[in-house]
């Protein structure tokens, strides 16, 4: 473990709740006065939104190595652990994010595009990654070996699907049918590249609903915290 430049990872599937865990860690960092270099997994996608749309039409999913730069994640974790440095960029999810980073960097990027690569600020206490592939291992990249603390966020799969369907509808305007099609297309990569990570993490948090989630594709609401246990 890099005691001087630790790498902390929260990893989980799309819709699993990693963003919520990330916000909790940000509150902890603020409270404890910890300067964290925060990195989002979406920034390591290989393609921007328009390019990925074309690739998805050909059968590619966001979960596999064809769509992601696992080598760049491994490189960042290695360099940060050794030096406290490295480079990151941002994937711009919305117009609001695009305006924020365009003003900061003096560029003209649109939602669905990436900002230019930039150096991580000097003097941070740790690197914190949140995304899909924080503990991934392939023949070409061993990201997990560069992680000091790996945390998995793993709802039971029906609950994960309910959360994804509702999130995609609310935040991205996708129909339930389109999200189900995405889930089906991703399944081989989910099995090969997402779930194996949770055997490499140091701790997993699994949310289990105490109400009926037997058919996630017709569920009208996401189970609330008092209808779940962890």
Structure description:
The protein has two domains: 7-85 and 128-229, 3-Layer(aba) Sandwich (Rossmann fold), CATH 3.40.50; 86-119, no CATH class. The chain is α/β, with parallel strands linked by helices and 230 residues long. The longest helix has 19 residues, at 176-194. Helix content is 37%, strand content 14%.
In CATH, what is the class of the largest domain? Alpha Beta
The main β sheet shows up as: 5 strands, parallel
What is the mean pLDDT? 91
Known CATH architecture of the largest domain: 3-Layer(aba) Sandwich
Kindly name the structural category: alpha/beta
Strand order in space, largest sheet: 2-5-1-6-7
The rounded distance between the terminal residues' Cα atoms is 28 Å
Q: What would a concise description of this structure say?
A:
This protein has 230 residues and is of the alpha/beta class. It folds into two domains: 7-85 and 128-229, P-loop containing nucleotide triphosphate hydrolases (Rossmann fold); 86-119, no CATH class. The chain has helices spanning 18-32, 49-57, 70-83, 95-105, 157-172, 176-194; strands at 7-11, 36-40, 87-88, 118-119, 126-131, 149-153, 203-205, 208-209, 228-229.
């Amino acid at each position: 473990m890099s005691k001087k430049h630790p790498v902390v990872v929260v990893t989980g599937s799309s819709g699993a709740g990693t963003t919520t865990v990330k916000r909790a860690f940000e509150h902890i960092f603020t409270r404890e006065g910890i300067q964290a270099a925060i990195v989002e997994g979406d920034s390591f996608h290989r393609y921007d939104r328009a390019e990925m749309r074309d690739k998805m039409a050909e059968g590619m999913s966001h979960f596999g190595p064809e769509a992601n730069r696992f080598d760049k994640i491994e490189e960042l974790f290695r360099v940060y652990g050794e030096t406290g440095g490295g480079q990151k960029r941002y994937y711009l999810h919305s117009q609001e994010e695009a305006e924020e980073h365009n003003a900061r960097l003096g560029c003209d990027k649109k939602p669905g595009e990436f900002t230019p690569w930039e150096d991580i600020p000097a003097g941070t206490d740790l690197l914190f990654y949140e995304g899909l592939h924080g503990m991934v291992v392939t023949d070409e990249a061993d990201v997990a070996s560069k992680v000091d603390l790996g945390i998995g966020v793993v709802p039971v799969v029906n609950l994960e699907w309910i959360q994804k369907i509702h999130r995609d509808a609310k935040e991205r305007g996708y129909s339930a049918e389109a999200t189900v099609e995405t889930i089906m297309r991703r399944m081989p990569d989910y099995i090969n590249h997402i779930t194996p990570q949770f055997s490499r993490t140091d701790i997993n948090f699994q949310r289990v609903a105490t109400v009926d989630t037997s058919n996630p594709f017709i569920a009208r609401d996401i189970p609330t915290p008092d209808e779940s246990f962890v």
